[in-house]
Prior knowledge:
There is one protein chain. The protein is mainly alpha-helical and 107 residues long. 79% of the residues lie in helices and 4% in strands. The protein has a two-stranded parallel ribbon with strand order 1-2.
Amino acid sequence: MEKQTLPNSTLILVFGILSILGCCCYGILGIIFAIAAIVMAKKATAIYTENPELYTGYQNVKTGKILAIIGLILSIIYLIYTIFLFATLGSEGIMNMQEEILRNYGG
């Protein structure tokens, strides 16, 4: 019998990568992609453990899950930092800080 690839194994890997990249979008996109990747990885792992000789692509699932966990942690940290900035400086204070940074370093 020919081996099949695990369902969504490539998608899990892509979502794991996007969760790390998505942490730069105030953490929201990173959290969404990370949770989706972790849930899909859990299902794929359950399928793989039932019949490991029938499937390939488990390495993508493991790598995607690790990347998703890293992306989730980074996204949560960045989201907390963003909430902290808005709570302490407010939106006007953040805009002033960005303008000052641009004046000093950006030209």
